[in-house]
Amino acid sequence: MTSRKSILYLFDVDGTLTKPRQVITEELKKFLLDDVKSKVTVGLVSGSDYAKIAEQMDGAEVAAKFDYVFCENGVVYYRNGKLISSESILSHLGEKLLQRVINFSLGYMSKIELPAKRGNFVEFRSSMINICPVGRSCSQAERDEFVKYDSIHSIRQKFVDSLKTEFEGSGLTFALGGQISVDVFPTGWDKTYCLNHVADQHFEQIHFFGDKTMAGGNDYEIYNDPRTVGHKVTSPDDTKEQVVRSLNIQ
């Protein structure tokens, strides 16, 4: 790996390297870990925890082959498969504020009518609270149905707007997470957080590839950060095409 350029390629997972909550294809996995990793340093940055990222990368042994895995926006940080550091939203914000957010969210969601509602509406993670109006226990068909419904009725965006109003000045950020949820985290704990972990590596360039780059999306901040070269992608196939062009891979 000594011939690699001093460049870091960072990839979002859902919608960028995989279809939402699906497993990466063998073709793309081989491309990243053989062709791309031979040229540049490669890393993953996701709002999900390590278990979910590993599942989508087709196993923990595959995830460990990436130079960096930044879970939960980088608040939990792995390098070459080893946990390096982690922070806690509970320690940072305290129980009282977190319960206010959870109670408000559960109350708000209880008044929404959707095509389907299932279980696991609030998921507590190290770095964030993930809130899901349809419930993360939904089936793939129910997920797809919610995505269509949300695109018409802006369920999540209205939820985010209400959260911003209710918790104005609290030091919290609210963003659309993946396809079906809302992420709640301390301001500054977006995906740019992961850049702190690589500052001492002095990469000549850091390229970021993500699909939720619009304002309010969870890739927005890192995509627009002056420390990165942002690439907006629309699918795993588009990601591969853009990487091929940027690295001039034959």
What fraction of the residues are assigned to beta strands by DSSP?
15-25%
CATH class of the largest domain: Alpha Beta
Instruction: Note the gap between the termini.
Output: 19 Å
Question: How many β-strand stretches?
Answer: 11
Number of domains: 2
Q: CATH homologous superfamily of the largest domain, by name?
A: HAD superfamily/HAD-like
Arrangement of strands in the largest sheet: 5-4-3-2-1-10-11
Question: What percent of residues adopt helix (DSSP H or I)?
Answer: 25-40%
Roughly what is the average pLDDT, rounded to an integer? 95
- Helix/strand/pairing class, anyone? alpha/beta
Order of helices and strands: EHEHHEEEHHEEHHEEEHEH
Q: Biggest sheet: strands, sense, closure?
A: 7 strands, mixed
Gyration radius (Cα, Å) is 18 Å
